[in-house]
Amino acid sequence: MKLLVTNDDGIGTLFLRELVQALQTAGHETFVVAPVTEQSWTGASKTRHRPVKSGAVDRGFGCPTWMVDGTPSDCVNIALAHLLPAAPGAPVVEGVVSGINVGFNCSLGFILASGTVAGAWEGALHGLPAMALSQDVSEEVYDHLKERGGAPDGELLATLRTTAARAAKLAPELFAATARNSFTVHNLNFPYPCLPGTPLQRTVPARVHVPGLFSPAADDGSHRLLWGKIHDVSPAEPLTDIKCLERGEISHSILDYRKLGHW
């Protein structure tokens, strides 16, 4: 398949590189359009109050690659309209793959804020099949990667490569089952560790409350974003994405946006 790949952690992350390599190894043709800097928790926002720059770059992906100084939604929108090779009457790509995110994107409390999911959603807004990929990690690993600028190694690198390979094999299967203009995103969350035989389960987004995400006001009146405590208020059934990861299994939630405002 011809696939547009984006993410929200920025073009420099190894998680993106491993995904692109796995997609190419599986025989897919890739085009990469990713943010210059991390855009986590930007949701489906688009940059409105300033011009957005894009530029072709060589980051060693072995495919056409561009950077955009905006959000994942900016990346996909600009790519499909202006950057990808012209295809008369239809997009040149057959689907959009967003990820692999550092950390999960589970539950209603996080899916709607996720830049990773939003990158896929922008593809769905253009009528394309789309999938969002996220790798669950421990708090210690997350801190190592995000706060200390560390790189994946050991078990994490092995998990990341397994996740990327599983995603590359799932893409044609899921996209073939997704009609154009279905406004649907396949949201996949991979456990840590993830193995070649780790089961894949259909799930629904957990229903959670996420209070206290900001610190008390400092002397200057500012509040800083913190990790709040998640309160899961989901019913026992069906299986939720969070419970699925806790079981050490791959979560696959089908986000059908046509059901917003359902009767």
What would you say this structure looks like, in words?
It is a single chain. With about 260 residues, the protein is of the alpha/beta class. It has one domain (about 1-205, about 240-260): Stationary-phase Survival Protein Sure Homolog, Chain: A. The protein has helices spanning about 15-25, 70-85, 110, 115-125, 140-145, 155-175, 240-245; strands at about 1-5, 30-35, 55, 65-70, 95-100, 130-135, 185-190, 200-205, 210, 230, 250-255. The protein has a 9-stranded mixed sheet with strand order 3-4-2-1-5-6-7-11-8, sandwiched between helices. The chain has a two-stranded antiparallel sheet with strand order 9-10. α1 (about 15-25) packs across α6 and α2 packs parallel to α4. The chain is globular and about 50 Å long. The termini are far apart.
Topology:
Elements (H helix, E strand, L loop, with lengths): L1 E5 L7 H12 L3 E7 L18 E3 L8 E4 L3 H12 L11 E8 L5 H4 L3 H11 L4 E6 L3 H8 L7 H23 L7 E7 L9 E4 L4 E2 L21 E2 L8 H6 L3 E7 L7
Parallel strand pairs: 1-2, 1-5, 2-4, 5-6, 6-7, 8-11
Antiparallel strand pairs: 3-4, 7-11, 9-10
